[in-house]
Amino acid sequence: MEPGLSPPNPPYAMLFYPSCPSKLRLLTTPSQSLKETFAAKLPGELEKVKKLRKDYGSKVVGEVTLDQVYGGARGIKALVWEGSVLDSEEGIRFRGKTIPECQELLPKAPGGEEPLPEGLFWLLLTGEVPTEEQVRGLSADWAARSDVPAFITDLIDRCPSDLHPMAQFSLAVTALEHESAFAKAYAKGINKKEYWSYTFEDSMDLIAKLPTIAAKIYRNVFKDGKVAAIEKDKDYGYNLANLLGFGGNKDFVELMRLYLTIHSDHEGGNVSAHTTHLVGSALSSPMLSLAAGLNGLAGPLHGLANQEVLNWLQQMKKAVGDDLSDKAITDYLWSTLNSGRVVPGYGHAVLRKTDPRYVSQREFALRKLPDDPMFKLVSQVYKIAPGVLTEHGKTKNPYPNVDAHSGVLLQYYGLTEANYYTVLFGVSRALGVLPQLIIDRALGAPIERPKSFSTDAYAKLVGATL
């Protein structure tokens, strides 16, 4: 235990392994550092929200137009999300920090180049940049919690190989409800002030098990079904890469650390984040809440987009061959647009500049694979597409988003099964949505229930005659 920290809180510590004191200490000593950091900040956060609502609760923060109502609630200010805010010009900020700042400030593995996702999880939950010691402790805690129940492995093994990997992933996460400390404690009756603590423990257990579950699906569907064991002294990104079968490639390990970090959180209004928050507001467990979010992530307008980008790029490569001239790329872009399709990976609901997540992946590629033919193609599209899309005039943001690049990097290192990519996105997204779920329960967030009207009722509200 770190100097100055009090012993683990017995009611929560003993909840998990009362018959195994040595394992109990292994599990709780590192996690208490994060848990106590959050608990220490909680009274101040509660007071801040209480004062804000008391002094400004009646203040109008925006207006809602009928176009927004019928346009998917786009831009309506209606959610609280502490971890990140998306600025149309600067891109995503995690607790106020840009991606380059996170790459600089967050701890790295010994000799590593990219930030560890454990550090981002800590930052998203507490608002503080953790120390190296704290991140090492969190890595060890997740590794200690990583054992997956046998019935979950059996469940995945029983899935037909042609069942989409995301459906298998969601199924396994849903089944982990059997292990939910929150659900069991709630059934017995607990004080509302304790909700966050059980949500925290469930979230930690869930995150810890995701690499093994994700790797089991990958190895079953695409390989020999065999999955390596979690290495207890290694970090989260390394273990995910190793379980997938790529642990021997240090650059792929670094890519996984970067991928997990930059794909984790993107405000609370996207489908996977909002769905997790919404289902959680009904006091569903973190397992059920995340599974619901994963089902949203599986859609082609959300997490499946990077797979669509890669398919489009591969089709372009077949069409243009080795001709990466400006004219060849321009002609192909126009052929895509003139056929009524969009250029996948370009445009964003909020951003009006190049996505910083795209930039971080491009910089990685420039260091690691500058001569790769597919990366050269991506670079040419990056050079040409904004001008074509601007001339086309139907895209508010003619610049690339994160999906325009990630598939090419994964392909380069041999993870070529694009049908699987959204599962990796799902592992990462858990790191972003579960901190907010803990915060929701800590702040006593109510069940979400906006008001709806029929079209006739809206017409009446705006004075229209239909």
From TrEMBL:
The record's InterPro entries line, in alphabetical order, gives:
Citrate_synth-like_lrg_a-sub, Citrate_synth-like_sm_a-sub, Citrate_synthase, Citrate_synthase_AS, Citrate_synthase_euk, Citrate_synthase_sf
Query: Which reaction(s) are listed as its catalytic activity?
Result: oxaloacetate + acetyl-CoA + H2O = citrate + CoA + H(+); propanoyl-CoA + oxaloacetate + H2O = (2S,3S)-2-methylcitrate + CoA + H(+)
Q: Which processes are annotated in GO (biological process)?
A: carbohydrate metabolic process; citrate metabolic process; tricarboxylic acid cycle
PROSITE patterns on file: CITRATE_SYNTHASE (PS00480)
**GO CC aspect terms:** mitochondrial matrix
The molecular function terms of the Gene Ontology recorded here are:
2-methylcitrate synthase activity; citrate synthase activity
Pfam families given for it? Citrate_synt
UniProt keyword terms in alphabetical order: Transferase, Transit peptide
Active site residues per record: 302, 348, 403
Return the PANTHER family for the record.
Answer: CITRATE SYNTHASE, CITRATE SYNTHASE, MITOCHONDRIAL
Q: Which family does it belong to?
A: Belongs to the citrate synthase family.
Question: What protein does this entry describe?
Answer: Citrate synthase
